[in-house]
Design a protein that fits this description.
The termini are far apart. By secondary structure, the chain is mostly helical. The chain is globular. Helix content is about 80%, strand content about 0%.
Length: about 325
């Protein structure tokens, strides 16, 4: 089972959705009749990896949270023999809480991860914790604190030669630089992220990088480049059945048309509405859903009036966590 978990994790990191999901299903069945401390540790490892799969690849953090709720019901996670699993559990739950929009709680979990890592002098874990803190700070509006956290994560990752952590921190630092309107730095981060990812087998960067570069291009008003990058990213995501990235890029199509409409291209208004509504079932579960619903409501109000715009906002309140609305 431990070997199967390692295989499933590798398949997930390679973005091979169907193969990974098949492994996780087989592992869950195999774990069912087992009991004892070793079985509990394997169950925790399965939950951590399956939670990542649901949250980051399928884009369904609610299902991931249900997995951990079930884990807590079935296993006493505070048992002495399971203390070694504590850091991994916190890391997984942090990721889920972030995707659900529970930023304050996620920040507490990230700080707890940092304390555990520093206490055990685990540089790799500390780099991951600083990266997590950076994610929470940008979500809480502290852009400078976020950038500094990512830079710490980068420095630690490079100290130990941990390329996967390096590319994650680079990508996230680029997102913060974009929010700070430091577009040249943001683009440099994403291009480095893609280059290192190609060298290390992080295949999902082939979709993540162009979609992020598209948002940079949109922010700078280069809509033609943004469109080309969105279509490039979407094509890769569809070829690999990466649900979250498919939904993200379909929503970006709507956001691009919305931006074009705001720049006095009246014909883009209906295109924006159609793009958002046709793909809503996919992107409504994303942590960016609040932004997409806001754009949809404004576009709908401009095109069809208050009643239909109100309907879009009501759907937003159903789909988006209370802390976002």
């Amino acid at each position: 089972i431990a070997l199967q978990l390692a295989c499933a994790e590798t398949l997930s990191k390679l973005g091979l959705m169907k193969e990974a999901e098949s492994f996780y299903s087989e592992i869950r069945s195999a774990l069912g009749p087992l009991s004892g401390q070793s079985a509990d540790i394997l169950q925790i490892r399965w939950a951590n990896q399956w939670g990542y799969f649901l949250t980051e690849l399928r884009g369904d953090p609610t299902a991931a949270k249900e997995t951990f709720d079930e884990l807590r019901r079935n296993i006493n996670l505070s048992a002495t023999g399971l203390q070694s699993q504590h850091a991994a559990i916190i890391s997984s739950e942090f990721n889920i809480e972030m995707r659900l929009g529970h930023y304050d709680h996620a920040h507490l979990l990230a700080e707890e991860s940092l304390k555990l890592a520093q206490a055990s002098r685990n540089i790799r874990a500390e780099a991951r914790a600083w990266n997590s803190i950076g994610i929470t700070l940008i979500s809480l509006g502290d852009w400078q604190g976020s950038a500094e956290s990512y830079e710490r994560a980068l420095a630690l990752a490079r100290t130990i030669g941990e390329r996967r952590l390096e590319v994650i921190a680079l990508h996230n630092l680029g997102l913060t630089r974009m929010d700070q309107a430091l577009y040249a730095e943001a683009r440099e981060c994403q291009e480095s992220y893609l280059s290192i990812s190609r060298a290390t087998g992080n295949h999902m960067a082939e979709s993540y990088a162009p979609s992020t570069l598209a948002t940079i291009a949109m922010s700078q008003g280069d809509f033609d480049q943004a469109e080309a990058l969105i279509e490039q990213s979407l094509k890769v995501a569809q070829e690999n059945d990466w649900s979250r990235l498919i939904a993200w890029n379909q929503a970006l199509r709507g956001l691009l048309a919305f931006y074009r409409w705001m720049k006095s291209d009246a014909g883009q208004l209906q295109i924006a509405i159609d793009a958002f509504t046709s793909s809503e079932d996919g992107w409504k579960l994303l942590d960016e859903a609040g932004e997409f619903y806001a754009a949809l409501a404004i576009a709908t109000y401009a095109h069809a009036g208050a009643d239909l715009a109100k309907s879009a906002l009501e759907r937003a309140h159903i789909a988006v966590d209370e802390s976002w609305t």
